[in-house]
Every structure is written in C-alpha cells, then in structure tokens.
Amino acid sequence: MTAKDKLFKMAKGFRGRSKNCYRIAKQSVEKALQYAYRDRKQKKRDMRSLWIQRVNAGSKEHGVPYSKLIYGLHNQNVQINRKMLSELAMYEPYSFKALVDQVKWMRGDAAQPAAQQAAQM
Amino acid sequence: MQAEALTAALGPPQFERIGRVDGRYSVKRTPQFAIVELGPAQYKVSPDDLVISEKLKGVDVNDRLELGRVLMLGSRSETIIGRPHVLGASVTAVVEEQFQDAKVTVFKKRRRKNSRRTMGHRQELTSLRIVGIHGFEAPEAESPAAVAAAA
C-alpha cells in the first residue's frame, strides 16, 4: 500500500473532491486528524459532563440535587466516581436510592431504615 | 512501624495473584454486582463479565487475580456501601488476554509554519473475566472502633 493509498483510505466518506483528489484530500485528512487529536481529549470532558447530567437526573428523582449528593458522599469518604454513579442511576436504581438515602440521613433529612443500618459497614 | 502504617493507609491492594487456571472454565451469572477499582478507573462488574483495563504488570494469561478494592456491593436484597472500601470484600478474576488496542494516529500540525508531526500509538490493555464476587456474607459484628478506623 502506497502512502497515497493510505491517505485515501483515511478520506473515506468525505464530501466532494476531498475523497478523490490528492491535493484536496490531503488537507481534509490533516484537518480530520487534528480534530481527532483534539477530540480524544474533549471526549473525556464530554463523558464526565454526561455522567453528571445523568446522576443529577437520578438523584433529583429522590429529591436531592447533584451538588448535595456529591457533597454528602464526599463527607462520608465514598469514593465511587461519577461514571459509576451514573451507571448505578441507570441500571441499579435501588442501589442508587440507597446511596441517596444515606446522604439524606447524614444530612438529617430522613430517618434511616433498620435494614440499612444492618448492612452499613 | 512507619512503613506498615503507610501501607495500611494506602488501602487494600488493587490486585493480587492468587493462583492459576488451567484449561476451560465457565462462570455462572448471578444477580450480583460489585464496583471495583482497577488502575485509574472503576468498573461495575458481575460474574461472567469481561473487563478491559489498563495493562497490569507482573501478570500472565490464565492467572487468577483477586481484586481487593471494592467500593460497593449490590444484590437483589442488599446494597453494601464502602467508605471508601468494603471490608473483607474481593472480586476474583482470570486474565484472559494481554493485547494492544487499535492504532490511533497522533497528528500535530502548526499552521503556516511548515511543521507537521505524525506518530502512531497503541495502548497496552489487559482483559479480565470476572469469576466471582465475595463479601456479601460479611461479619455483622463490626465494633465501632474498627468501623471508625477503617473509614
């Protein structure tokens, strides 16, 4: 495979002459690679923002906004990160509710159920 | 000793080799999960899950590992929240593969300055099959001093 072939391979799906003509494709591919470099870093930021939105939605369902939830968890030295919190909120709603209830109890908003006391470590 | 206090303060080890597995094994799925810390990331795992993590050093294919840093356990009937780690809980895993990720092309360009740099990069990864989750039948009699010391 020549260098030109490799370039055109990277230009698949591009619009117009950017996928066919070498001089134009070269510019487009370079720009695409620059965006890829930048976006690999941005993806990490975007994902965290998504997790935070999901955790916020989940904890507001139980009456606690995201900021208070994170503050409460931080005070109790629970080190579950935002990605996992969002997974819990989506797929393990009862466990997520347990975390929210724990935070509520520590803030003095709600009484702790007996079963939760037994399981608390 | 100061060294012991320092290592105790670090918390349980992330992973430890506890033996080998020969040949085939099959894992039953159970409705349990654990949140385990491995490398810089956390994973929510159930038995018979495949976890792809950063390369683990000193580990070979078909090794059985014990992942010691468990942040939370959950099952149908109970949830155990660790602060930060659940005491006495662990997850057993078997190393399936140590491989390289797909290649990413790292390309940097300074415009109008006739400068370009191209580099290829393949990240080293390890894939683990989760075999078991332990720690649900933890001893209930935790003295307040022990809980406070672990927190």
UniProtKB/TrEMBL annotation, chain A:
Gene3D superfamilies xrefs: 6.10.160.10, Ribosomal protein L20 (1.10.1900.20)
Record-level GO BP terms: translation
Organism listed in the record: Elliptochloris bilobata
Function noted in UniProt: Binds directly to 23S ribosomal RNA and is necessary for the in vitro assembly process of the 50S ribosomal subunit. It is not involved in the protein synthesizing functions of that subunit.
Keywords recorded for this protein, A-Z: Ribonucleoprotein, Ribosomal protein, RNA-binding, rRNA-binding
One GO CC annotation: ribonucleoprotein complex
The protein's name in its UniProt record: 50S ribosomal protein L20
Taxonomic superkingdom: Eukaryota
Protein family membership: Belongs to the bacterial ribosomal protein bL20 family.
GO MF entry, a single one: rRNA binding
From TrEMBL, chain B:
A single Gene Ontology CC term: ribonucleoprotein complex
Record has Ribosomal protein as a keyword: yes
One GO MF term attached to the UniProt entry: structural constituent of ribosome
Pfam families: Ribosomal_L21p
Keywords assigned: Ribonucleoprotein, Ribosomal protein, RNA-binding, rRNA-binding
Ribonucleoprotein as UniProt keyword: yes
Domain of life, source organism: Eukaryota
InterPro entries for this protein: bL21-like (IPR028909), bL21-like_sf (IPR036164), Ribosomal_bL21 (IPR001787), Ribosomal_bL21_CS (IPR018258)
GO BP terms in the entry: translation
Family as reported in the entry's similarity comment: Belongs to the bacterial ribosomal protein bL21 family.
Annotated protein name in UniProt: Large ribosomal subunit protein bL21m
Organism (species): Elliptochloris bilobata
